[in-house]
Hints:
By secondary structure, the protein is α/β, with parallel strands linked by helices. It contains 8 helices and 9 strands. It has a 7-stranded mixed sheet with strand order 1-8-7-2-5-3-4, with helices on both faces. It has a two-stranded parallel sheet with strand order 6-9.
Amino acid sequence: MFYRLMKMIVAPLLKIFFRPWVEGMDNIPADGPAILASNHLSFSDSFFLPALMKRRVTFIAKSEYFTGTGVKGKLTAAFFRGVGQLPVDRSGVRGAGEAAIRSGIEVIERGELFGVYPEGTRSPDGKLYRGKVGGLARIALATGAPVIPVAMIDTEKLQPPGQVKPNFGVRPGIRIGTPMDFSRYHGMENDRFILRSVTDEVMYEIMRLSGQEYVDIYATAAKRQIQDAKKQADAERRAAARQLAQKQAEEKKQAEEKKQSEDK
């Protein structure tokens, strides 16, 4: 019910205010199961991608989106439930991964579209990071469903990480690639080397579609590096400020002592 309401209200509003463009919509099958594997640049991806698809897309979302308090928390939870997002508790990493895979397989077995962000989290700087081995490849190999690479374009400019209010005037886009068939690996979903190969192949297609610079580390590691660099820079600025204040205090003291000496 809410999903249809979202399609009737949210999608037209997005089109009016942001004029998003979509290329390759014909690559989405009219029916039957498929996996949409997308890059992840912004929180707004979770609005534009499901709203602009002709078919319903079910994504996995962290459980925190469903347990918020207050008006904002309740609205966020209602939205994610309404657009078909499935909550997964990520506090236990392995258990969360297995739960996400089971949920994805169930969606595929119902003949629906399952959406996944292979990077596992939003890009901290607009670059494309290494896809995580697990959910995407295992679901594809276990079910035989085709993987459709998707590139979100400029959504990080529309709503940068940490920014709530979108930047009007930015026109985001979605570029959809041709379906990828991994049936040759069917039954090999427990082979980590195969899973890595499948994931890398999908990430290459996303890179080609998006034009992003590819960085061969995980986005979570990149976020830690950026945070550590920021902390280091902040510490250096504070140290420099302390040294400057100390120097100014010493110069003031010397000036006062000199004045007192001259007055005598």
